């Protein structure tokens, strides 16, 4: 672990131990801290107006998944997952909403909203938190900025880490799938007395890479075997294809010819290409890439709390994780590279061009990503009269680097193509390595490196109590304030501060008498307001209101409405400026085509993305029958999304973006010729989504044990909008889109668990993805079930064995017109996995 990590770990441990040492005289008065998602109001046994989905440790373990993103991809409300094969970093998108629209909490508290590893995409990288350290995951699939502030645009994921345990826990697992494997280990211990409690857990896992060549769907760009087209390109053909600079190749009746299969590359003549004249060798790059990278995840989580004699409770956390990812990237290729007549192997006696994979260099292009994440928390809570209070400080930071190696040194490549020395010349006419490994390594020795540091400090405090006693019950309220400071360094250095004030209330308005002197709440209002003042773009006020109606003890009717926002990220505001040439058409000069200077990057004048969400639902809960059924209709509207425009869009809408198009002085009554265009980030894009969520769970006791059937589904009825400047508003419901913003109409799970006794439990579950149009309709995808199962056997109170299987029928992706040949957002490339685990507790 880096020095920074060691120092932070030491700081967190010292703070906690210092708090413990301060307890000279303790009492036996201890309380259990419960993390509630979606509100800071006092938690009760009943559901509230805001629906939260809770996935506990048992559900997570039974899923057989080993990363947070992979687990969340199995739940219905997560329509789209961002997999490492598509963005390297990972996130989830609730109900298909735009990237970066989900706020990630850790143990109910904000952390940095965007990690440096995913700064260009604008989200928190879930790879930084090992799943083996997670106790439960709460999903709030609605905008909640009134509770949590910015970034909670379309929902909140609260990751609750393991801390509330006594004794020692050991967990050893091995996961097997065809061509890839994973090992996982975690160990934890918890101890404490009447007034103190400490726990520590560490985890480690490593996973093998999965190459595109290991799966039939990605092994070749020629998809005719699946009923699709041949998408192979001569740029990645193996061996290469030779092209003339002008006219036909010497001695041939065509301007191009494929290098013959098995060509020795030495002593060739033009006649050796006669049989392949007019032919091209084509191929793709996906088969050479690692679509699932090699990865190592490790982490340490320490918690401590202590109650002073005064009743004040001190608490502290320390989370330190490390994530490393390595993979083979797009292989080096010749893109119509000039091969002079001086080339030692050129058989044509004149300069030609060559396109194709650089054989022998296939695995030189690699990427390496390393990220260290540190997050200490200190705080205190207590009671002052009739009011509870809490204050906490969170410091979060991730440091890392991303390196793309094997990049082309153009000068060395051109020299090798022109070399007359067979020992150093690059030979594109051979079906085999084009030169020595040493020469290839020198040609492709360049690297692109991105370093980053992202940090946030969040100080939060609130008081909670009931200032009024209404006729129907206490008016529960929360008043609080928060200060946040953020900084991002990634080819730029930007910072911001945020000051916020917030309040929540729950007002019971009508109640009915119950047994004794108790009252049963019939009708209540719930509301929250938060004001955020940002040092860069300004302020924003978010609000949320809800009603709760209980016509019977087992029935809850609820509704919510509210607003949310996502501020422009620091990268959106201050990304490095890039300058290059851009060909454009000028509509003010009779469609004149001109090459102008284009500038892109951050835009300090961006506004936040905003949303409005509403829900209407019913919950039927029968604790006596162990039955819960819920149905919720929801609506989400997102406006002013932040996107990159094209230079042409800015020019076509010049009047809407004053100052972005620079022209020469007007002449002859015409506007001046365009000199430059600024096409940095702009606010553009809106989304409209409607749908229904349904959930049912029932536990039934029989003579042969307990059965628990469950079903959950998200059914979308509307999803449309424009995502890019200049783009048309399109229907995205069950229609795959190349920008990744879409969702299947239906996604659901159904399963049943059976437990004849406390030592044995088996479950069987199906995950369903509904039918949707491929990226080029009328082809369709989806309408697919994945079958998972788990078996848990306990041997006494100490040892248990858990065996899980995912995708048991080994359903692999069908052909899709997505550039990888399959839809990475909704299909599982790994296939069937078997995960065996041994857990020991003592």
Task: Give the secondary structure arrangement, pairings included.
Layout (H helix, E strand, L loop, with lengths): L2 H19 L31 E3 L1 H7 L4 H5 L5 E5 L1 H4 L3 E4 L7 E5 L2 E2 L23 E7 L4 H4 L6 E7 L5 E11 L2 E13 L3 E12 L2 E2 L29 E4 L11 E3 L31 E3 L1 E14 L5 E16 L4 E7 L12 E6 L8 E19 L2 E21 L2 H9 L18 H7 L2 E25 L2 E17 L3 E21 L5 E16 L3 E15 L2 E12 L3 H5 L3 E9 L5 E9 L8 E14 L4 E13 L2 E2 L3 H6 L8 E3 L10 E5 L3 E2 L2 E13 L1 E3 L2 E18 L7 E2 L14 E12 L2 E10 L2 E2 L6 E2 L2 E12 L3 E8 L26 E9 L1
Write a structural description.
The structure is a single chain. The radius of gyration is 30 Å and the shape is globular. It folds into three domains: 3-21 and 27-31 and 54-209 and 293-328 and 369-403 and 450-568 and 608-644 and 683-841, Beta Barrel (Maltoporin, Chain A), CATH 2.40.170; 212-292 and 331-364 and 409-443, no CATH class; 573-605 and 646-679, no CATH class. It is mostly beta strands. The strands form eight sheets. It has a 22-stranded antiparallel barrel. A five-stranded mixed sheet has the order 1-6-7-4-5. The protein is built from nine helices and 45 strands.
At a glance:
The protein has 842 residues and is mostly beta strands.
Provide key terms for this protein:
842 residues, mainly beta, Maltoporin, Chain A, 22-stranded antiparallel barrel, five-stranded mixed β-sheet, 9 helices, 45 strands, 50% strand, disordered N terminus
């Amino acid at each position: 672990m880096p020095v920074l990590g060691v120092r932070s770990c030491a700081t967190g441990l010292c703070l906690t131990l210092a708090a413990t040492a301060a307890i000279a005289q303790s009492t036996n008065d201890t309380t259990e801290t419960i993390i509630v998602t979606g509100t800071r109001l006092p938690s009760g046994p009943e559901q509230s107006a805001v629906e939260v989905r809770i996935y506990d440790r048992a559900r997570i373990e039974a899923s057989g998944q080993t990363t947070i993103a992979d687990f969340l991809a199995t739940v219905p409300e997560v329509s789209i997952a961002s997999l490492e094969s598509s963005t390297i970093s990972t996130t989830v998108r609730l109900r298909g909403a735009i990237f970066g629209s989900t706020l990630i909490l850790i143990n109910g508290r904000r952390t940095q909203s965007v990690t440096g590893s995913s700064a260009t995409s604008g989200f928190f990288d879930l790879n930084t938190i090992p799943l083996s350290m997670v106790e439960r995951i709460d999903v709030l699939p609605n905008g909640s900025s009134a509770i949590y502030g910015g970034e909670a645009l379309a929902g909140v994921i609260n990751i609750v880490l393991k801390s509330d345990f006594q004794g020692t826990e050991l967990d050893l697992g091995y996961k097997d799938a065809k061509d890839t494997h994973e090992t996982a280990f975690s160990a934890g211990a918890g101890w404490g007395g009447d007034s103190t409690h400490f726990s520590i857990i560490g985890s480690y896992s490593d996973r093998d890479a999965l190459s595109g060549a290991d799966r039939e769907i990605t092994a070749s760009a020629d998809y005719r075997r699946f009923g699709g087209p041949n998408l192979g390109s001569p740029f990645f053909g193996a061996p290469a294809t030779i092209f003339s600079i002008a006219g036909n190749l010497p001695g041939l009746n065509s301007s191009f010819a494929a290098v013959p299969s098995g060509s020795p590359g030495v002593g060739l003549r033009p006649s050796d290409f006669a049989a392949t004249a007019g032919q091209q060798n084509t191929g793709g790059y996906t088969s050479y890439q690692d679509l699932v990278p090699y990865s190592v995840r490790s982490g340490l989580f320490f918690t401590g709390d202590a109650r002073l004699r005064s009743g004040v409770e001190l608490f502290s956390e320390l989370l330190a994780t490390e994530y490393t990812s390595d993979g083979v990237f797009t292989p080096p290729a010749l893109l119509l590279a000039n091969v002079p007549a001086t080339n030692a192997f050129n058989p044509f006696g004149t300069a030609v061009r060559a396109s194709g994979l650089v054989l022998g260099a296939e695995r030189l292009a690699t990427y390496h990503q390393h990220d260290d994440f540190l997050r200490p928390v200190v705080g205190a809570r207590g009671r002052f009269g009739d009011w509870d209070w809490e204050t906490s400080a969170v410091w979060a930071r991730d440091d890392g680097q991303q390196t793309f190696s094997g990049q082309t040194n153009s000068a060395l490549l051109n020299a090798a193509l022109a070399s007359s020395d067979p020992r150093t010349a690059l030979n594109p006419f051979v079906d085999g390595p084009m030169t020595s490994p040493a020469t290839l390594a020198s040609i492709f020795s360049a690297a692109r490196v991105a370093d980053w540091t992202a940090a946030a400090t969040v100080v939060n405090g609130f008081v909670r109590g009931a200032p009024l006693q209404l006729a129907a019950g206490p008016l529960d309220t929360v008043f609080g304030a928060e200060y946040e400071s953020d900084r991002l360094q990634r080819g730029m250095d930007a910072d911001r501060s945020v000051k916020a004030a917030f309040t929540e209330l729950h007002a019971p308005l009508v109640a009915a008498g119950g047994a004794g002197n108790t009252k049963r709440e019939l009708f209540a209002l719930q509301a929250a307001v938060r004001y955020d003042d940002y040092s860069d773009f300004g302020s924003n006020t978010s609000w949320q209101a809800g009603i709760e109606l209980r016509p019977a003890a087992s029935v809850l009717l609820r509704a919510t409405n509210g607003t949310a926002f996502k501020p422009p990220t620091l990268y959106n505001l201050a990304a490095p400026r890039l300058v290059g040439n851009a060909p454009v058409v000028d509509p003010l000069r009779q469609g004149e085509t001109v090459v102008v200077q284009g500038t892109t990057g951050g835009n300090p004048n961006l506004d936040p993305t905003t949303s409005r969400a509403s829900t209407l639902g019913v919950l039927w809960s029968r604790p006596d029958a162990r039955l819960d059924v819920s149905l919720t209709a929801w609506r989400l509207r997102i406006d002013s999304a932040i996107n990159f425009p094209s230079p042409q869009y800015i020019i076509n809408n010049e009047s809407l973006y004053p100052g972005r198009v620079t022209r020469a002085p007007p002449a002859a009554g015409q506007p001046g010729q365009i000199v430059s265009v600024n096409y940095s980030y702009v606010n553009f894009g809106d989304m409209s989504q409607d749908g229904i969520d349904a959930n049912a769970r029932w536990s039934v006791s029989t003579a042969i044990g307990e059965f628990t059937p469950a079903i959950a589904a998200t059914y979308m009825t509307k999803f449309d909008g424009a995502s890019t400047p200049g783009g048309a508003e399109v229907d995205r419901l069950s229609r795959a889109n190349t920008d990744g913003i879409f969702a299947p109409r239906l996604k659901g799970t159904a399963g049943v668990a059976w437990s004849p006794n406390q030592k044995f439990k088996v479950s069987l579950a199906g995950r369903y993805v509904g039918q949707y149009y491929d990226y080029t309709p009328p082809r369709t995808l989806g309408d697919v079930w994945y079958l998972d199962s788990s078996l848990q056997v306990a041997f006494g109170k100490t040892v248990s064995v858990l065996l899980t299987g995912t995708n048991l029928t080994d359903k692999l992706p069908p052909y899709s017109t997505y550039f990888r040949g399959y839809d990475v957002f909704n299909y599982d490339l790994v296939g069937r996995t078997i995960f065996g685990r041994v857990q020991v507790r003592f």
